[in-house]
Design a protein that fits this description.
Shape: rod-shaped
Number of strands: 0
Number of helices: 3
Order of helices and strands: HHH
Helix content: over 70%
Oligomer: single chain
Amino acid sequence: MVWALFLLFWALAQPLPALEGELKKAQEAQKRTEARIQELNRALASLSQTTQALLRQVRDLEAEIGRLEKERADLQERIRLLQEEIRRAEKRIAQLEEDLKALKERLKALMVSLYRERAGRYLPLLRAESFTDLAVRSRLVGRLTARQQDTLKQLQTTLEALRQERTRLDLLLKDLAQEERAKAEN
């Protein structure tokens, strides 16, 4: 019986080295698999970091695009406002030119009137019959003279306003050109 047990152990011992070889192969395969898993985990972590960096870049680019779009919208609004202001200035200039034309006509009529009345205006003063008559006639001449001075002052004021509006229009046109260049650069 001992002999039988011995043979039995011996028989059982024979496949053990084959099983040990299989076990070693399985352990080596497990180690390779674990190493591969660790390698893949590192690659995944690296990809995750790269992905995070790319996402940050995308967010930064989106913010930059948003900022540039807002800047472009602001430029377009400023250009629109400048164009509107230019239209108003051109309208004011046209009105001032009309006023100037009317004033020139009045001035022309005034000059003709002055030329015709130059000698005749002061002669009635000399023909005054009384001091009261002289005072009334003097007042009339004073009113005519004041009206003529008012017309001249109004003409000067209109000319100055026209000059200022033209200067303002030139500045607005320069601003508009600058804003349009800025818009083109963006």
